[in-house]
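hey so u asked for the seq, here:
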Amino acid sequence: MVKTLDLALQGGGSHGAFTWGVLERLLEDERIQIDGLCGTSAGAMNATVVSYGLMQNGRKGAIDLLYKFWKKIADEQRFSLIQPSLLEKTFGDGGKLDYSPVYQMLDFYTMLFSPYQFNPLDYNPLESLLDNLIDFDELKSYKGCKLFVCATNVCTGRAKIFSGEEISLKAVMASACLPFLFKAVEIDGEHYWDGGYMGNPPIFPLINDTATSDILLIQINPIKVKDLPRTADEIRDRINTLSFNTSLMHEMRRVNMVQRLLQLGLDLDGKSRKLNIHHINPEELMGEMSVSSKLNADWKFLLRLRGYGRQAAEEWLEQNFDKIGVESTCNLKEIFL
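ran it, structure tokens below
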């Protein structure tokens, strides 16, 4: 039996390698059909790579291109701002990934200077990497899996969803544009920053523009933490995760409200439909990693995250496959309200 899913992919730098593992495992399962992909930042890159891979050579094409994408990131040493040798502890050995001296220096430097000053040429190695892997003109013609990429309009404060003919290299780079490191990306006279500020990821494109009722959210920014942040680094860490989860929290609350109204027989606009929301959130795993590790592109680190993602997807499929198309497996009230 083939069951259809929409996938909503959060952003989170190198932590997106966890999502890589989830996607790889889902693509291997021929019982799963992906109808729509909506992503932000690293999630947008994963989604774009999967879409183009599917277009080129089906499931195998998507799996192979995901591997090639993440391997090229690891090979691009200039993108690896934090070297593993500078980490006092390595994740998986019972310790938390500590901030490195390189990350602290970069954090301090970006407080004093803007990317318009220290990066006047707006160099971003990911741009050429994606440009070499994906023919965006060809991708625009793809009529299979629907692709949605989210960016934040700097001047209006609104989420911008790029899809169909709007999908481009610039759109994906806008979705991943961290304002402390890169200049705002200009598209058709508008300027964009990382989509995580206004939608990480947005759910509404999948609700409005696909016919699929089951949405699987792959989250890599923890909502809850075990301990109260006390050090300056821990406080900045927590502010980062809170800010990049805020829009998602609000949107999921609206989804919950609409679903409750439908249960009561109320459809306020005549367009609402029952949704089944599913969730993969390695909260404990990601809680062990600091924000600095989001810039760690060491190949062994990425492969480790990929392995955790595959394992999480395997467990989710075993526990929830029969519930796809039947009921939600994510407790919205407990997680988001």
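Residues 149 and 313 are 23 Å apart (CA to CA). The chain has a mean pLDDT of 89.
lmk if thats what u needed
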